[in-house]
């Protein structure tokens, strides 16, 4: 069975181990020892714990538990020789490193274990020697074991707190970036809805009437189609300029353009009647809202206007000849917008659709917390009509609602 190879010790650890070994050899060469009473008289015996402890210093980060266990055995063996101060100092660093770099479980146990060992040595020597020297030996044992362990625990806790703070900062930065990306996406969606709602109606009319002018060889029809095309192109260009002005920091406008409201529905339907006359479409408005009621919130007014505008645009593109009916109703809590148009095959030219209109309407209603549905429904005479229905809250909502 092949044993796994230990990672290579860092260069700093190798330098610490070498410095400890050289320092110990210098002390040994001058005969500077720390033990007066010794069991092993041979002078060379002091070099064995010194060499072992130096090797454990090299493993202080790559194998901290192994370094602590072997280092403990080496410091115990050093007490039976002349003793070397470098061995003791390297042992304190091994204890410190075992707490700082060791596994979390070992880092928690080592300070308690060294504390109990220190107390045990002190009490045992007091019972055996029965003099104050035992207290001094206990303090020294605590200084080389318990104190480095406590210092390592404090350093490790500070490092973990710093890592946690750095992680929280990174998470906060990530959340901020996500919020920024979501805000950019939401703003792009809003701009897309506004652009579609403001321009699609004019472009649809231009597409329908240009197709009619090209397909019908009639001077009067062509002249009428070109007139409608010019009116819608001029109106669409004006709305495009207003939108570009809103997007720029300095558009040159003295005042921003006012957002459309439901008061402008008559003008919107008048334009739709002009554009849809050649397709056999008629447009009606039924507004059952009570006069003098509470004004609607501005976002609700804008959303309702855009829903009617987009529904009329879709009717110009796809509706069969007949009547397009716009219905408005309001109660204490909601505004109901309903637009119905003939559903079926349509003769003559028609403009292509992308489906973005329904998506935009649904997004507008969802942002206000309302209800939206669109699709064919049976009419009273047994035919089908296309209905767009939106229920918008008529009360201003707080962010917490």
What's the quick description here?
This protein has 401 residues and is α+β, with helices and mostly antiparallel strands. 61% of the residues lie in helices and 11% in strands.
* Shape assignment: rod-shaped
Q: What's the end-to-end separation, in Å?
A: 66 Å
- Order of SSEs, N→C? HHHHHHHHEHEEHEE
Identify low-pLDDT runs: 250-254
Oligomer: single chain
Count the strands?
5
Q: Biggest sheet: strands, sense, closure? A: 5 strands, mixed
Number of self-contained structural domains: 2
- Share of helix among residues? 55-70%
Strand order of the largest sheet: 1-2-3-5-4
Total helices: the number is 10
Strand content: 5-15%
Residue-averaged pLDDT: 83
Q: SS-based structural class?
A: alpha+beta
Compute the gyration radius: what is it? 43 Å
What would you say this structure looks like, in words?
Helix 1 (11-29) packs antiparallel against helix 2 (47-58). This protein folds into two domains: 11-173, no CATH class; 260-401, 2-Layer Sandwich (Heat Shock Protein 90). The protein has helices at 11-29, 47-58, 64-78, 85-101, 104-129, 133-215, 219-247, 265-276, 298-318, 356-367, and strands spanning 281-287, 322-330, 334-342, 371-378, 384-393. A hairpin with a 3-residue loop joins strand 2 and strand 3 (334-342). The two termini are 66 Å apart. With 401 residues, the protein is an alpha+beta fold.
